[in-house]
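Standup notes
- DV: blocked on the single-chain target, sequence here:
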Amino acid sequence: MSNKKFAFIFLSIIAIFTLLNFSIWSLYTKEILTREGDFITGDLTRIGYLSKAVHKRKNEIDLPKQHDSQPKATHYELVTIGDSFSQGHSGGKNRYYQDYIATKFNWNVLNLPQYPNTQNYSETIIALANNGFLDKYHIKYVLIESTQRRVVERFTKHVNYSLSIPYEESENFYHIQKEHSFQLPDVTAINNGNSKFVLYNFLYHFSDRAFFSDVHKVKLTQKFFSTSLGDYLLYYHKDISTIKNTTLASLETVNSELNTLSRFLKEKGIQLIFMPAVSKYDLYSPFIVNNKYELDPFFNLFETLKKDYIFIDTKKILSKELQKNEQDIFYGDDTHWSYKASDIIISYLYKIIK
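- DV (later): unblocked, structure below
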């Protein structure tokens, strides 16, 4: 082969490779791997490269009262602490359920992240109760939130009730906290996500998780999402891989730990609220066509346990809405529920407390 012919073939391959990458990027992957302007897309489309499920939305707030992410008021009726559900990672309209509490209850609400070097959310609350932080802000309620799949992992740990942290350290730490905004890494037009997009979308024809994706794509009996894949459910693989940890014994330990925390807080005049965020798989599993995976017994088992705290059964509350054929309770492209779910759940909490 002559040098000229070799150079032509080599340059042609480079040109085709570049053209294909730019085409896939422009038509599909740019939308799911980046955030153009103010638009948000969900984590499941990004992980599973499923562009047809995209539910584009903007972060916006139309509620008259919002929560604080750092102490600004002299008192707060409620402190919340939790994972990505508490940090507004769903994006979109009124992405913080705390803002519905602030508005419906007309309360000052403070959202706190877990304090460094504490085992879990419970230990953070214990440390803040012991050092006078909760007392200073006249806290009446503490709401702990956790995604369903991590409840056993987080709350079967025995916590240290004598734990404390220097008061000034906690004040300094929480006064520098800012509203959390999820940031995506910088991605250029030529990236390995383009090849993954082609591969995954081919393999989803043969496997509900494209054999090795962390996202499952399964058919539903009806349309529950306002996207092009509205009658398909996308859910995170760990929603089912962690079911094996959900046993009556493990949940009895969780409940015992929460009951102990509740009694500890009651001595300080504070009421505990526990809100496990139902997994997308568990909520929609009754509507999956020919579901081949086991059902999650979490809420059925947990319901039977005696509790000394306020328990928010998010599955029972939101399941009633699905029975009314309500769409977009969860975002179709995301592991997180939407503003609709936050509104419904907090309306339920309002009836209990008020």
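- Follow-up: The chain has one domain: 1-182+189-354.
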